[in-house]
Design goal:
- There is one protein chain.
- The chain is 38% helix and 20% strand.
- The chain contains twelve helices and 15 strands.
- It is globular.
Length: 393
């Protein structure tokens, strides 16, 4: 009998919670934590014996054997057979996460012209993909209730497409999302106080986690992209957002708006006394639709679009310099269309950062494109489920 949570909810995700358990804890929290510790060790290493797990986690062999028996009964862990060994005595039995027993549904709502989704395995590999367009034949983009209906349509299709029990549904959405999976505001979708996590849980009866798309993306980079240390991922799409991982934990902010840098005024074009203007925020220079329009206009005039990309990169550098200075970040990752972000835009970002921060404090700062490509939010949605349901990432 499984003990997995079947309610909507973010499970183990929350402010200050380390994404990966690494050590023993107090007795009152021990069982669930140690369970996640065993699963995390197998998820990352695989093919370990009970004795191997005990050595790596610091848990006693009795505790490990007890937890493994429980996980085997729930089909979350499988025995692979005996390890080949020249040593005398009975060979150890190897264990692994049961990577085919469950599947995950991931949904990405961050694209400006479509919603994308996939059925994935526990390693975040896409098994089946689907999408629904947001634009109709007249070019009108769905928002509000119409956009909500398209999410429901996509999720229904993906759930029906799964070929194994679904561990949960993860959703990456633009905008400000609280820990209940309510989208407090997503202007580009016309959403305010939309309880999407609750709605999808009622629709499917499955565990659902809804989070900001940039937060989902930074989780994908953390889990699958080989990121190390404190990092910030900047997600460039219809809007601009960022995900932050500090000291191994996702940063949410007091109003769940950490990383909402797209609406920050950058530069002093209107003078230091100028009031807030949407025409002076980072999104005005950096959003994908804005960049595409600018490039098309330049091409129509026979002009080079490189200065436009450099300007956008400089504005991004202006926005990021105080963050890098305040947090002493070791890595900045850009996520979005490679043809727009890689090259002049990224170079201008680095140049501006170097000019606006103390070099000796940030000499090893790395700025790079994500290794996850266009599926980064989908794979991050899988991490949301894995972390919330199994405590692994």
């Amino acid at each position: 009998m499984t003990t997995m949570d079947v309610r909507g909810g973010n499970g183990g995700l929350g402010p200050g919670r380390a994404l990966r358990p690494r050590a023993k804890v107090l007795p009152e929290h021990a069982r669930s934590h140690n369970r996640s510790l065993v699963l995390q060790t197998l998820y990352r290493s695989g093919q370990l014996s009970r004795a191997d797990i005990a050595r790596e986690t610091g848990l006693t062999r009795v505790t490990v054997s007890d937890l493994v028996a429980e996980l085997l009964s729930e089909s979350l862990v499988i025995e692979l057979g005996q390890r080949e060994s020249a040593r005398p005595g009975k060979p150890a039995v190897l264990l692994d996460i049961n990577r085919t027993a469950h599947q995950i549904v991931g949904v990405d709502l961050s694209d400006h012209d479509r919603f994308r989704g996939a059925v994935m395995d526990l390693d975040g590999e896409l098994l089946h993909s689907a999408e629904v367009p947001l634009e109709d034949a007249d070019g009108r983009v769905a928002t509000g209730e119409e956009a909500h209906a398209k999410v429901v349509e996509l999720v229904r299709h993906l759930v029906e497409s799964a070929t194994a029990p679904i561990l949960g549904i993860g959703v990456g959405s633009p905008g400000v999302v609280d820990l209940t999976g309510t989208i407090l505001t997503a202007p580009n979708l016309g959403w305010t106080a939309v309880p999407l996590q609750h709605d999808l849980h009622l629709l499917t009866g499955l565990p659902v986690v809804v989070a900001n798309d940039a937060n989902a993306a930074v989780l994908a980079e953390h889990s699958y992209g080989g990121a190390t240390g404190d990092m910030m991922l900047i997600r460039v799409g219809h809007g601009i957002g960022a995900g932050l991982i500090i000291a191994g934990a996702l940063v949410y902010g007091s109003h769940f708006a950490a990383g909402e840098i797209g609406q920050v005024m950058v530069g002093t074009d209107l003078g230091l006394d100028a009031t807030y203007s949407r025409d002076q925020v980072l999104e005005h220079w950096l959003s994908v639709p804005q960049l595409r329009r600018g490039i098309l206009a330049a091409e129509a005039e026979g002009a080079d679009a490189t200065p436009l990309l450099r300007e956008a990169g400089s504005r991004l550098g202006i926005a990021l310099a105080p963050v890098v200075g305040a947090l002493n970040l070791s890595e900045l990752v850009l996520s979005g269309p490679t043809d727009l972000l890689d090259g002049p835009l990224a170079e201008a970002t680095i140049h501006t950062l170097r000019n606006r921060t103390m070099a000796e404090n940030h000499a090893d700062l790395a700025v790079r494109m994500t290794t996850q490509g266009q599926d980064i939010v989908l794979r991050g949605a899988a991490v949301l489920v894995l972390s919330g349901q199994l405590g692994v990432s």
